[in-house]
Write a structure and sequence with these properties.
The complex is a heterotrimer of chains A (478), B (117) and C (483).
Chain A (H helix, E strand, L loop, with lengths): L2 E12 L38 H13 L3 E2 L6 E4 L9 E4 L6 E2 L2 E6 L2 E14 L3 E7 L2 E5 L6 E7 L6 H17 L12 E11 L9 E6 L2 H20 L7 E6 L4 E7 L9 E2 L10 H10 L4 H12 L3 H7 L3 H13 L4 H19 L10 H12 L5 H12 L7 H8 L7 H14 L1 H8 L4 H13 L6 H12 L1
Parallel strand pairs in A: 12-13
Antiparallel strand pairs in A: 1-10, 1-11, 2-5, 3-4, 3-15, 5-7, 6-7, 7-10, 8-9, 11-12, 13-14
Helix pairs in contact in A: 2-3, 5-6, 7-8, 7-9, 9-10, 12-14, 12-15, 13-14, 14-15
Chain B lengths: L6 H9 L11 H10 L6 H19 L33 H5 L5 E2 L2 E5 L4
Antiparallel strand pairs in B: 1-2
Chain C lengths: L5 H9 L5 H19 L2 E3 L2 H16 L10 E5 L26 H8 L3 E6 L33 H8 L5 E6 L5 H7 L2 E4 L19 E6 L2 H11 L29 E5 L9 H16 L3 E5 L7 H16 L18 H12 L2 H14 L4 H22 L5 E5 L15 H5 L6 H6 L3 E8 L5 E8 L4 H14 L10
Parallel strand pairs in C: 2-3, 2-4, 7-8, 7-9
Antiparallel strand pairs in C: 1-3, 4-6, 5-6, 5-10, 9-11, 10-11
Classes of the chains: A alpha+beta (478), B mainly alpha (117), C alpha/beta (483).
């Protein structure tokens, strides 16, 4: 049987505020345990939540970036369950009237595009952490993270492969960083994915029973977990079994998912509107102000790069995968619009490879966009060859000669010979010295021409402008 | 004085409200609720609670006498909207003070019996 | 001196006839004398109290004084006070020394008032007789066989027995007004959102409201001036301009329209209470008021509505008591779940557990709409009834409680009987309206009767005026129990 894979993602993005969503405690990462858990976070008797404007603003910005509806009023609800890292015995979240509803993003798979719809995005508080190192057989609870603002972003089950799921997660990851609402640090848990996975016979319009895989904190784990889960479900069904609705955990070491809890012991969360928090009204003025504060969004830039600079859809999406990269590209391309494709190639090729090797971000790239443009110009005007440019780039990366492109070319003797009379002289010498090849060429052996070019290049140690050499040879031999 | 009569009788006595629906709670319901509320309950307590809750829910059921199909639920006593706090860190570390009243702490952590995922 | 008003005491302090330390010591002596019998206090800490009195004396010496500077005030043990044991009447918090101050405590501290200790109360404010306290019942100073009412029974008793000149209370469905009535004192629950709930241990967040309890209405106005005000730490705290609640006390009552809900004056009220209420209304007519019949058709359902909404909120509010970060933790347990379940089974009393179970049930899957949403809809109808009634009258009056104080143990085994003690008070709580009770005489067994006054939103000054004029014409509020 042919199976269709159906995937929906729930992504928790930690919002990049200074303070917690309902208290004035810091959310800075890495503090000593419980030093950033104030009386409100500890749920002491009598304490009350007050909503952080910064968290609401970030949620609205997200909603605007995906073309969603911003609900006003928006309501906070309590999700009741007991867990030691949940100090109040309930999590303040949203149930009815989440702040963001609807919206969509498009993902790029190769050269084709696909739209993924979003169901909603709601604000909620994070829980603390249980540390399982052995404290005389007990667990330790650190509540520093409790109350950290999260935006839970829920997609429709629109994805049909782990590749699409990863592409979607990457698009959202780029977007939340792009609009500055989340630092996207997956190691520190600032961006976490849960995947809802099911399979169904191709052609069926009924969804299969789904399993939720929790806490996938890298794109690679997301892909592996989905692939494993899909295999598991298909195997089960093909063996005549049934998929049981449950929550599963991904074991990164074993590369497999395992049961965390079944639907039967799923909690009755007893959601109800939080009586300590009032309806949040979001005035249209505020929305407009935030809309204006948004930077040009990735998809808009992608379109612009395609139409203004003639880039391919693939190149345009790679360059807009982060705001820093797009800014770098744009700074370069604006100076040499006709060489935009060359800029793109440099950024996606040499620069990206070098950054990756050094584990650096483009924002820290030692070769600035203006310097890159100078380099590209020198290639374009024939001063140096493309090959020599790579040598110059290395020099620039290392900061040699104050990153003066021309000085580097000069000092390394990389300048091409482009003087016609000089080339003519060289060509004449080569023709005289290689009479046999000249004869071969004239007898129709095309290969001999290349050999002659090679001889000229060799004589100039590769510095002659190959195009000019070609032209001159053709002229002399015709 | 009126004594030893059920809640619904009292409501009828006071306000002429009649009971429309009789719901029944079972001992299992009581145990399940206690489980959801994380409160240990003995068989004996469950039985006693069942009787009292049944009476209380009879009283509560009197609500069904009023048609509320056209009414919006009221969650708050005042029709006002949420005030927002500026995003600023205003709290400093009070761990020592707060943990001085904790049942069990070590290395700044609250200790609980082993948490099993 | 124990029967003097706050104004009189403040005048003595200002004239240096007496220092705050001396005044405080006199009241502490009285507490020591009477508290063993009445059990109005859970915590008395002479050292802390006298330190505050000394500070108040310094303030007075430096001329930095207000109406409450140096005045002893008892605090209901529901208000977190830094460094004070704050139990909320529960074993669960029997070791909880608060690391922070409630908004209300800060306000009294800033005003220079002297914290006389923490008063006894029904556990987590759930009760109408003070019998659910882990610290034992409070006795009614008018008759030790009787309950003081609840949940602010300790505060009511302490004021009635003149162990303190004033106290704080909190009211969720009648917990200030009903004990005030049963103990023959004055108490007011202001409009929801007027008094900060920050640091006031939550029972039912959308209903809880703090308020003062005192001998007279004039005292209540002075206390309200200190106790109310915006607190940014409480999202439901209202941002309003500060008002002087005493500004209208002396206004005459001519033209006052008193609404009498026909539902409250049908059957149900015991005859002794009815008689006292009728006499009070006669007094008002003499003062120039007229009475008009109004109707609150949905208000009889306030008890079932209240017993859905309050337990629902409570079941969630009390989830934080788990023995992890503070408070009671069971001694012997097998694992985490067992620790939670035993801690909560042992730390909470019977009534609290009962309400947690009710609340858990009405919020649970499949019952939410039938109970919780239904109750919220009726809550709106109840509030709308008042809105309509207030188009026909200035205030609403009736009995505060259906009977005078009942005997200890009389209703403690029958929760429904107990719940019906709040039958006249819970509707105003659901609507968020201000309500107060003032003493208007005595009923059966010579136990006090209270008159319930409900005003429109933010009509506290008017209500205090109306109640004060009554107290100018009568002396019920000055009567002291013969202890």
């Amino acid at each position: 049987m042919q199976w269709e894979i159906v995937i929906g993602l729930e992504i928790h993005a930690q919002l990049s505020t200074q303070s917690k969503i309902f208290s004035g405690a810091s959310i800075a990462y890495g503090a000593m345990p419980n030093t950033q858990a104030c009386v409100v976070d500890l749920a002491l008797p009598g304490v009350l939540p007050v909503l952080n404007r910064g968290a609401v603003e970030r949620a609205i910005k997200f909603g605007l970036a995906i073309g969603a509806t911003i609900n006003s009023p928006s309501i906070f609800a309590r999700k009741n369950y007991f867990y030691p890292d949940l100090p109040k015995g309930y999590q303040i979240s949203q149930y009815e009237l989440p702040i963001v509803e609807g919206g969509e993003v498009s993902i790029q798979i190769g050269e084709s595009e696909k739209t993924i719809r979003l169901t909603r995005a709601h604000l909620e508080e994070d829980a603390g952490k249980s540390l399982h190192e052995d404290f005389h057989g007990m667990s330790g609870i650190d509540l520093n993270r409790a109350g950290t603002p999260l935006l839970e972003i829920v997609s429709e089950p629109d994805m049909r492969s782990s590749t699409e799921a990863v592409a979607y997660a990457k698009i959202l990851h780029a977007l939340v960083r792009w609009i500055g609402i989340c630092d996207g640090n997956m190691q520190e848990g600032s961006f976490r994915c849960d995947a809802n996975v099911s399979v169904r016979p191709r052609g069926s319009d009924k969804l299969g029973t789904r399993c939720e895989i929790k806490n996938l904190n890298s794109f690679r784990f997301l892909e592996k977990a989905i692939d494993f889960e899909v295999e598991r479900q298909i195997e089960l069904l093909e063996d005549g079994g049934m998929v049981r609705q449950e929550t599963r955990l991904f074991d990164a070491n074993k590369g497999e998912t395992r049961t965390m809890r079944t639907k039967e012991d799923a909690n009755d969360y007893r959601y109800f509107p939080d009586p300590d928090l009032l309806p949040v009204e979001i005035e249209s003025d505020w929305i407009e102000q935030l809309r204006e504060s948004l930077p040009e969004l990735p998809h808009a830039r992608r379109e612009r790069y395609i139409s203004n600079y003639g880039l391919s859809a693939y190149d345009a999406s790679v360059l807009t995968s982060s705001r820093e990269m797009a800014d770098y590209f744009e700074a370069a391309a604006e100076q040499v619009p006709e060489q935009a494709k060359l800029c793109a190639n440099w950024i996606m090729g040499e620069i990206s490879a070098r950054l990756k090797k050094e584990d650096m971000d483009i924002i820290d790239c030692p070769v600035g966009s203006t310097i890159l443009v100078t380099l590209i110009k020198r290639v374009h005007d024939g001063t140096i060859s493309g090959k020599a440019a790579k040598t110059v780039f290395e020099s620039l990366w290392l900061g040699e000669l104050k990153q003066d492109v021309d000085a580097i070319i000069e000092s390394k003797g990389l300048k091409q010979i482009s003087d016609d009379s000089a080339i003519e002289k060289l060509v004449d010498e080569v023709l005289v010295a290689n009479a046999q090849q000249v004869a071969d060429y004239r007898n129709g052996k095309e290969k001999a021409f290349n050999a002659l070019v090679g001889q000229v290049m060799k004589a100039t140690k590769g510095k002659a402008n190959p195009a000019q050499v070609n032209a001159m040879l053709k002229k002399k031999l015709s | 004085m009126i004594r030893q009569i059920s809640g619904s009788m009292i409501l009828y006595y006071y306000f002429n409200i009649r009971l429309l629906i009789h719901m029944t709670l079972s001992i299992n319901d009581v145990k399940q609720i206690a489980d959801l509320a994380y409160i240990e309950i003995s068989e004996e307590e469950a039985n006693a609670t069942l009787n009292q809750l049944s009476d209380i829910f009879k009283l509560i059921e009197t609500m069904q006498a009023v048609d509320t199909s056209q009414v919006e639920p009221m969650s708050h006593a005042q029709d006002v909207v949420q005030r927002l706090r500026d995003d600023a860190v205003t709290e400093s570390d009070q761990r020592d003070l707060c943990q001085s009243i904790a049942p069990q702490v070590e290395n700044g952590l609250y200790l609980v019996p082993k948490v099993i995922e | 001196m124990f029967n003097e008003s706050l104004k009189q005491l403040s005048k003595r302090l200002a004239k240096k006839e007496i220092s705050s330390v001396e005044l405080t010591t006199e009241f502490l002596e009285r507490i020591k004398k009477f508290n063993p019998e009445f059990n109005a206090f859970i915590t008395i800490d002479e050292e802390k109290t006298l330190t505050q009195a000394k500070q108040a004396d310094q303030k007075i010496a430096s001329g930095d004084t207000g109406p409450l500077t140096g005045i002893p005030v008892a605090q209901k043990d529901i208000f977190c006070a830094k460094g004070w044991l704050t139990t909320c009447g529960s074993k669960m918090l029997s070791n909880f020394v608060s690391p922070y101050d409630a908004g209300v405590i800060e306000r009294f501290d800033q005003a220079g008032a002297v914290n006389m200790g923490k008063t006894n109360m029904d556990e987590f404010a759930m009760g109408s007789s003070n019998e659910t306290s882990f610290y034992g019942p409070v006795r009614n100073p008018w008759d030790v066989a009787a309950v003081p009412g609840g949940s602010s029974g300790g505060s009511a008793c302490a004021v009635a027995a003149r162990m303190v000149p004033a106290a704080t209370g909190t009211d969720t469905g009648g917990s200030i007004r009903q004990p005030a009535a049963l103990c023959g004192i004055s108490g007011i629950k202001p409009t929801y959102g007027t008094v900060s709930r920050y640091g006031m241990i939550a029972f039912a967040s959308s209903l809880d409201q703090g308020g003062p309890m005192a001998k007279s209405v004039e005292d209540l106005a002075i206390l309200l001036n200190v106790m109310t005000g915006f607190d940014q730490r409480d999202s439901t705290s209202l941002q309003r301009e500060k008002e002087d609640y005493a500004r209208d006390l002396e206004k005459p009552l001519s033209g006052l329209r008193i609404g009498l809900p026909k539902e409250y004056f049908a059957k149900g009220m015991s005859s002794d209470v009815e008689k006292a209420v009728e006499q009070a209304l006669d007094q008002y007519r003499k003062l120039g008021a007229e009475t008009v019949e109004v109707t609150l058709p949905n208000s009889p359902l306030s008890i079932p509505v209240y017993y859905v909404l309050a337990p629902a909120e409570a079941s969630s509010n009390l989830s934080r008591f788990d023995g992890v970060r503070y408070g009671y933790r069971t001694q012997i347990y097998q694992d985490l779940g067992d620790m939670y379940r035993k801690t909560r089974a042992e730390g909470f009393g019977v009534e609290v557990k009962r309400r947690i179970l009710i609340g858990t049930y009405v919020l649970s899957h499949g019952y939410y709409d039938a109970y919780y949403i239904k109750a919220q809809k009726l809550r709106r109808l109840i509030a709308q009834d008042f809105k309509h009634a207030f188009s026909q009258c200035d205030v609403i009056m009736g009995p505060t409680a259906p009977t005078v104080a009942f005997d200890l143990g009389e209703k403690s085994s029958d929760p429904i009987q107990m719940y019906l003690s709040d039958i006249y008070t819970s509707a105003a709580s659901l609507a968020g309206l201000p309500g107060m009770s003032i003493p208007i005489g005595f009923g059966d067994k010579n136990r006090p009767v209270g008159l319930h006054i409900i005003g429109n939103y933010f009509a506290e000054a008017r209500m205090l005026n109306i109640a004060h004029q009554y107290q100018m014409a009568t002396d019920w509020h000055q009567r002291m129990p013969g202890i």
